[in-house]
Amino acid sequence: METLLELLHSPWPWYVSGPIIGFMVPLLLLVGNRSFGISQNLEHLCAISQPRIVHIRFFKYDWRPSLWSLIFATGVPIGGWLAGVVFTNPQPIELSSAAIQQFSAWGLKDMTLLNPPELFSFSWGSIPLLIISGILIGFGTRYASGCTSGHAITGISTFQIQSVYAVIGIFAGGMLASHWIVPLLLSWQ
Amino acid sequence: MAEKFLPLIRFSPYLLLGILFGFALIKSEAASWYRIQEMFYFQSFHMYGIIISAISTATLSLFVVRRMVGRPSLEGEVINIPVKKPGRVNYPLGGFIFGLGWGTIGLCPGPIFALIGTGSIPALILLVSALHGTWLFGVLRDRLPQ
């Protein structure tokens, strides 16, 4: 019992969490021939909330057959609550020493939580950043018809060249942001 | 009476899989800005380990699923391997735009949903902004190269 609780509280190594994430692809196919991907829900939520008088063609479709996806997405924050609140990891996150050095050099002080309070807070410095990043994420994932789950995992495991192009784009954008935008933003703080 | 609970039973596997996915995203620390930066600076194998083992698990288990193509799934719909829509520019360009947001704020859509469950207001702001980004895409779609 003690060890089970410890397992639930401790962070999971990549070779445990990675396969669990990967199993979503075959399991969703076996349950209902569903394609694993999270960002499609952004589209469904827009379709649900579009008022009748607005005529944006992209959101004019019957979202009801995608109810399964919204239910799957509802489970994600429940799992997040269980993992982050009920079974909290009492230890600070174990980053590599190179990363810790880098983050300290950037002026980040508190590295105990999953995300830096310097960027994830309710302040004038971070809110515009959250909004702009969120817009880029919502716009880009729909333009590419998928995010990390739909392309990197579902797309590549089903050998689709479109997903390879998408993943190259994602990685290039991420590299540019983390090597250029992030240091620039943090130097202003 | 039993019929009233039918949708609940029908959709419960999706809810359970979603819970497991959200749990794994937090426990793996894939929902961490630090882990994402560490990945883009090649300072740790952790995130690559998650992505590579997830792809390998999916690929290997799909060899079994492929044998069941044409047979009904648990819900009844016939199993098929999903195929992406045709397109050229939209995949790398959309990916690049998404990557800019991901590299800056360190969260992709899955982790945004998972973090909301931990009570994170910043994650909620991210979701609402992402919905606006999706809406903006819907408005501009016909003018964008596909």
Q: Could you explain the architecture of this structure?
A:
The complex is a heterodimer of chains A (189) and B (146). Chain A has two domains: 1-88, no CATH class; 122-189, no CATH class. Chain A is built from eight helices and no strands. Chain A has helices at 2-9, 14-32, 40-49, 67-86, 97-105, 127-143, 148-157, 161-188. Chain B has 146 residues and is mostly helical. Chain B has six helices and no strands. Chain B has helices at residues 6-27, 33-40, 46-66, 90-105, 109-116, 121-140. The model of chain B has no long low-confidence stretch (mean pLDDT 94). At the A-B interface, α2, α3, α4, α5 and α6 of A face α1, α2, α3, α4 and α5 of B.
List the helices and strands and how they pair.
The complex is a heterodimer of chains A (189) and B (146).
Chain A: H1 2-9, H2 14-32, H3 40-49, H4 67-86, H5 97-105, H6 127-143, H7 148-157, H8 161-188
Helix pairs in contact in A: 7-8
Chain B: H1 6-27, H2 33-40, H3 46-66, H4 90-105, H5 109-116, H6 121-140
Helix pairs in contact in B: 1-5, 2-4, 5-6
Features:
heterodimer, A: 189 residues, mainly alpha, 2 domains, globular, B: 146 residues, 6 helices, 65% helix
Describe what is shown at a glance:
The complex is a heterodimer of chains A (189) and B (146). By secondary structure, chain A is mainly alpha-helical.
